[in-house]
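Hi Y.,

Following your request, here is the sequence exactly as I used it, all 849 residues.
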Amino acid sequence: MALLLGFLLLLLELCGNTLSLGSRSSTEGTEVLELQLPATNYETKDSYKAGPIGGLFQIVHIFLRVVQPNDFPEDILRKILQKKFDLSTDYEKPENVVLTLKIIYYEIGVIICAVLGLLFVILMPLVGCCFGLCRCCNKCGGEMHQRQKKNGPFLRKCFAVSLLVISIFISIGIIYGFVANHHLRAQIEKTRKLADSNFRDLRTLLNGAPAEISYILSQYTTTKEKAFSDLDNVKSLLGGGIHEQLRPKVIPALDDIKAMAEAIKETKEALLNVNNTLKELKKSSAQLNTSLSDVKRDLEQSLNDPMCSAPPVATTCNNIRTSLSQLDDNTNMDQLPSLDKPIDKINDILQTNLSSLVQQGYKSFNDIPEMVENQTTDIISDVKSTLNSIGSDIESIGEQIPIQDQLSNFMGYINDTETYIRRNLPTLEEYDSYRWLGGLVVCCLLTLVVIFYYLGLLCGTCGYDRNATPTRRGCVSNTGGIFLMVGAGVSFLICWILMTIVVLTFVVGANVEKLLCEPYQNRKLFQVLDTPYLLNENWKHYLSGMVFNKPDINLTFEQVYSDCKENKGIYGTLKLENSYNISEHLNIQEHAGNISNDFQNMKVNIDNIVLLDEAGRKNLMDFSFSGIDAINYNIYLAELSKAPTKGNLLSFADDLEVKANHLPHGSLKQSLKNNAQTIRTIHRSEVIPLEQSMSSVYQSIKELQQKSSGLGMKVTNTLSSLDSAQDFLTTRISSVIVEESQKYGNTIVGYFERYLQWVKISITEKIAACKPVATALDSAVDVFLCSYIIDPMNLFWFGIGKATVFLLPALIFAVKLAKHYRRMDSEDVYEDMENGNIGFHRHHSTQTV
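Below is the corresponding structure, written out as tokens. Let me know if you'd prefer a different format.
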């Protein structure tokens, strides 16, 4: 009980000496900050399992619920604790009589069992004494004579089976006693380890709380460093934010102008390329025309040969003469106008470097972050000063929490309590060894009785001879009967002592289980303790009166225990805001408002951004009026799509050679073949390159036509987009700056709002999480008292009581059965008389008894 008292005092002292404890840090953080304390590990488990023996404990609990089915007497206990029940002086008061009757009604099951046990204790010695005297007078079965009965064998078997079954029940009870006795000693040996682990956990709690508060407050440095980092990066964060907001509107306009500048350059290059190629085409076309004219003239001279006058050859020559038109030039490149004038206009336009003007627009726009950085230097300095002042306020909060002195005093109390427990534990273990020895003696006495019964059954059953008369029974059978009588005699000697032990342990164990253990587990005991004005008639709430000296605060034992069981912080558990309100000293809105005020004073002026000056705009307009889109590209395309010659020179050459082969040998035939070969050479060396050049120029003009198509509309759209972007910068940039400044300021403020909120939650809910206190109380009451002591003690009286009760029927059946196993002094003899009647007379054995 010293351990129980120590833990209960520990809980109350902790409640009264932790007015300023805060909470363990939560794991909450900001979007980029992870604020988390290392997890605290405790040794003592918050639950206890009895193991396989727990099933036996449950059997005892069921028996107690049958014996004591009434609900926990909260009203009775309240009146007793309020000292309104004193039979020594006011026993005649009606309320005391009623209360006494209620107590008797509640304890009626225990009282009945105890009365029955006391009757057993009183009557069994008397009955045993009378039974012994009666047998000494050869009464009550003491006469060594057994009457012969027809149902004698059946009775012997019934007595033997009954005694065996009862002995088994007694053995089960004895096993319960041995198990409970050993389990209780084993658990007492674990008490030192249990106490040590609880004290270490309490020290871990008390030593860790100040460090946790210091850690939480020191995390302001991490938050401040993150904020300072963002403030130092105002160029990329605020300036970049403004830049990104304007980018979707401005960059496309600048990209269009940049593309238009590139288009002007590409147009010039395309025009130059086409113009130069056209000049080459004209030269190539003229050269081709000259070559074909020479071949045609040569063919005409060859066809004037006299052989062409002969009838067979004349037809061939005429056919060749009519096909000479295929050698004529099919194009007229000279009619295509020159592109020199458009090129000159483009060159004039390119005198103004539009690309450079666009890059200036890009630079002016991309300089926004740097402009923001230069204009916010003073504001950033003010914000940093404000953040430093907030850090000083937070450090002062840590100094204002009076925790060290309180924890020092409480640590001393823990050391004193531990010293007391360590000093008395050896005494407890010594007394428990005596208890264990006494329990062992009790179990051994019962074991001795049941062994006598088992030996009697074994010897009597094995040595029994059905053919032997009662006076001639064997030694083994007689020994079995003697064992049974010894067992009965020992039962009379020890049963009243055993029942006395059972009654005493039953009354104590049953009431502790029903009045302390069960209400502690279902927390009804706390509800009783939380009754207003119960423990102190001047305090409505005892716990708040003891902690704050303010009994009107609703602070209850049940709420404190439940919160500690859920590992909540002592600050919130004990409602310490009534002593030190952290919210008043850690005003989040006030600190956040100071930072917000600094950001509201931020002035950023970036209204002087010009995306493209007037020179650039004039350059674009000149390009739209350059006449590129007015060029008649169809004339070029139509001429360039024609074949260079009217006929296919290869086909003409092949046909000419075939016809020449049909002519007789001579100079005409050879001349025609030579001309055919010359035509092939002209096709290979002049026509094919000319066709390739014409195709390339055709594609270039086609692309140039596509690029120049709608040139005026493209320039107009580009200038419209530029005007829209410039107007957006002029009219909307101020609102964008305000919006981004608020967002940037909210980000910085958000770090501290989340940090301060995290500090508040940590101190009020997490720091000094009092689970070790609830675990210590559980260890003292639920584990040590109820599980270590009461459960084994209840199992002990349950098993021993069961065995002792069964001793009564066992000794009856043992005495009855012994008559059938023991060797008798006389027996009944049956014989036939001369007149035919059947009679009997008593026969005395000649054997020595």
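Strands lie at 145-146, 826-832, 838-844.

Thanks again,
Q.
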